[in-house]
Amino acid sequence: MAVFNYKALGAGGAVVTGELTAGDRGEALRQLDKKGLQPVKVAEAKVVAKPAKTDKTAARRAPQVKAKPEGLVKASPKVKAKDKDTKEVPEGPLKMKSKEVVYFTEELSDMLAAGLQLEPALRAMEAREEEGNIKEISQRIRNLVRDGTSFSQALKRVSPSFGPLYCSLAAAGEASGALDTILRRQAHYLKTIQELRGRITLALIYPAFLILSGIGVSIIFVTKLIPQLTGLLKGTPGSEMPIGVRVMIGASDFLRAWWIVILLIVLAGAIFFKAWKDAERNKPAWDRIKLKLPLYGNVIRGRFYVQFLETMANLVGNGLPLLRSLELTRDAAQNIHLRSSMDEMIEMVGDGRSLSSTMIRSQIFPPLLIDMVAVGEQTGKIDLALRRAAERYDKELDGALQKVMAMVMPAVLLLMASLVGTMAYAMISAIFQTINNLGGA
């Protein structure tokens, strides 16, 4: 046990000083927490041992010394239990649902915007009545922040659900002093993604039923109706099987004979593709391919532009140097190909070039965006120019997402119409061929 001198703030804001006995600094902080005190400074006191005096008075002070350790022994199991819970922070990360991440971000950003410091804000979230992961996450993060860990590092250690992008943006907010703004924009972004997923799920329900119905109809056609018509045509004198029916029968026979091989090939191809995509050396190539995909590539680019502009506007607007702002913005980028292009931009800015000229050389930004940034550099209000550009491209990103969603339903309907229409045509051709053969007989 050691003696710690502390300086803390009481409930009314009064400064309280004193000393307490604890096993380590973390335990001392927890004791202050139990007393409702917010620690400002906690340091171990330097105690000089006096062995001679202790030896002379050992007999007289024996009862007191004996009684004091008894109280400590009784309290030690509780302290150890609490220590055990606190040490679970890095060892047992909690997984959160996407809704819980959004709620956590919204609540914390609102409290920080209201003027609360980070630790009191987390304490207030920890005291919420509703049980769940948010309360436990807030407690674990507060314990780490109180012990000196940065907020972004605490997020990484407590839950993998925050993700690299979230943690990088949190680090940018800590560095710029605009953590509340960064979290508010991140909450808006997460809500947008969540709403998009919900809209896509709802939009795909009807096409999913269509696809399942089409598969069921195809199975009935191939296994029941077409074989019956084939038998009828073969039993009719002078009959000739239509080419459409012959093609469908051949495809059906092929699938029945080789479906296991085809399934294994598809599974092997999927496993190989996933292994190739997840390999570190292939991730830059896969990120380049994603940027070239129809519709989806435009969404990825638009998302990168909005994130780049918003993060840069917040960092530069809060006084961070341009070079440091670019480094933090690069760390928040998810696409490795785009991130490597930003590495070149950082080198050029470090050599003294302007942001707009480096954006031109990187060849990853559209001309209109570069022109808006160049105007901001000329007027000396680059943060406002970046924010206006972010609003513009946010609207364009929303339009691109709506376009992708609008294309899903027609594509599925066209596919199902082609499938069912082909089978219906083959059936009608077979029926007419049967009627003609019977009439000719």
From TrEMBL:
Membrane-topology descriptor: Multi-pass membrane protein
Regions of compositional bias (Basic and acidic residues) in chain numbering: 80-90
Places the protein is found: Cell membrane
Region of interest: Disordered: 49-91
Domain Type II secretion system protein GspF: 104-227, 308-428
TM ranges: 200-222, 257-276, 411-432
Gene3D superfamilies: Type II secretion system (T2SS), domain F (1.20.81.30)
Chief subcellular location: membrane
Keywords assigned: Cell membrane, Membrane, Transmembrane, Transmembrane helix
Coiled coil spans: none
Gene Ontology annotations for the cellular component aspect, listed alphabetically: plasma membrane
Keyword match Kinase: no
Similarity annotation: Belongs to the GSP F family.
Protein name, entry field: Type II secretion system protein GspF
Species of the source: Roseibacillus persicicus
